[in-house]
Amino acid sequence: MRELTMKRALVAMLIPAAIVLSSCSRAESDQDGSKQALLVDSSNFASCAEAREVGAAPLLKGEQSYRAEWDRDGDGVACETDGGAKVTTTAAPAPVEETQDSGMNGILVPGTARNRKQISSNSVSFDLSGMDLDDAAKWMGSRLPVNSDVDGMKPCDVRRFDDLYEWFWAGEVTASGVDMFSVAVLNTTPVSVVIRNAPSEPAGC
């Protein structure tokens, strides 16, 4: 009986101590968690090391925690990770305009046309890289004023050969011939377009 009484007394002494220890442990855990949450949520890190420690790095420009003095190369990324590896973004390529002005009577050529050559004072040419003869002719034909006047000259003929598409406009008949304007797509390498203003063309249309 005496032994049982001593055991009960010992248990009575140990239970409050266990409760106290458990409470302390929970309080310490809650305190650490609150401290960690406060650190993660903070927009005022003391250093990049602190931001990296809680997994908040890298810090991007526009974020509250970003600081210009931590952005070593001025690329908008502070506290870069992985030994300073940059976080890069790939800029979208600039869009290519669908058309461009040829500089001849408002005639348009593809935006991808390159290598403009002034053949003479009355004619120019462009390379149409990436287009075959039929594609280039279809593109030009859909944008040419085939039913409208060009600089006072009226549409008069369209010609198609194995290696050539050509559109013509004719002006006034003079003693030396007819003022002509033409646009030709040629099967050269690469395919090219020639825009020509030919005053006093004897053949006419």
TrEMBL record:
Keyword Signal: yes
Keywords, ordered alphabetically: Signal
Domain Excalibur calcium-binding span(s) in chain numbering: 44-80
Signal peptide, first to last residue: 1-27
Domain of life according to the entry: Bacteria
Identification of the protein by name: Excalibur calcium-binding domain-containing protein
